[in-house]
Amino acid sequence: MTKKLVAEFIGTFWLVLGGCGSAVLACSFPEFGIGFTGVAFAFGLTVLTMAFAIGHISGCHLNPAVSIGLFVGGRFSAKELIPYIISQVLGGMLAAYVLYTIASGREGFVAGGFAANGFGEHSPGGYSMAAVILCEVVMTFMFLIIILGSTDERAPKGLAPIAIGLGLTLIHLISIPVSNTSVNPARSTSQVLFADAWAAQQLWVFWVAPIAGAVLAGLVYKGFFEKQE
């Protein structure tokens, strides 16, 4: 169990540092910024690389919603659920601290939103809370369907990390303008440590909506697509 928890901690650390780090440090860098597309690929690459690195150790969940969705889908044990979530949240928090420390090394840096997720005036595109909730539920639902399907024993072997990484990239390409893309409560929680106060006030949405989408996906996959014994 300890090896799995350490793997989840390191993996989530990398997801937050790579994904949110690209948003904070490189997204709008003058003349050479990577933009939304670059951030989307950064998030996808963190999952892709960690899936190959630690997938055989912990399953590479890196996300409380993923762990819960896999549990509902019958792929993950109840006794490991809470320890996994704690490890993921702590790994994300450490990454946010490292990112903030790096970013603070630039004169005049102000954390501001710090790549936090938000709705209303704090949505990149000004989307309403209802729109953000719907987006987060649907995107997390599809993410879990991709995970459950690509890791099914009937799926092509060895390709799941690619499908999952590219799936997360596509999700970000769609939804960064809507919510800054969460689909991951650990990622959302990590950023509120250093962002402006509004981020903590809106955090509940980025726990409730992703978990709801993940639970629905677990039920759908288990009910309709899982191999019958």
Automatic annotation (TrEMBL):
Membrane topology: Multi-pass membrane protein
Name of the protein described by the UniProt record: Aquaporin Z
Segments carrying motif NPA 1: 63-65
Family per similarity comment: Belongs to the MIP/aquaporin (TC 1.A.8) family.
Motif NPA 2 in this chain: 184-186
GO molecular function, one term: water channel activity
Site for Involved in tetramerization or stability of the tetramer, residues: C20
Transmembrane segments: 36-60, 81-100, 127-147, 159-178, 198-221
Subcellular location: Cell membrane
Record flagged with keyword Cell membrane: yes
Record-linked Gene3D superfamilies: Glycerol uptake facilitator protein (1.20.1080.10)
Record keywords, A-Z: Cell inner membrane, Cell membrane, Membrane, Repeat, Transmembrane, Transmembrane helix, Transport
Catalysed reaction, written as an equation: H2O(in) = H2O(out)
GO cellular component, one term: plasma membrane
InterPro entries: Aquaporin-like, Aquaporin_transptr, Aquaporin_Z, MIP, MIP_CS
Entries under Pfam families matching the protein: MIP
Reported function: Channel that permits osmotically driven movement of water in both directions. It is involved in the osmoregulation and in the maintenance of cell turgor during volume expansion in rapidly growing cells. It mediates rapid entry or exit of water in response to abrupt changes in osmolarity.
Quaternary context: Homotetramer.
Note on domains (UniProt): Aquaporins contain two tandem repeats each containing three membrane-spanning domains and a pore-forming loop with the signature motif Asn-Pro-Ala (NPA).
Site (Selectivity filter): F43, H172, T181, R187
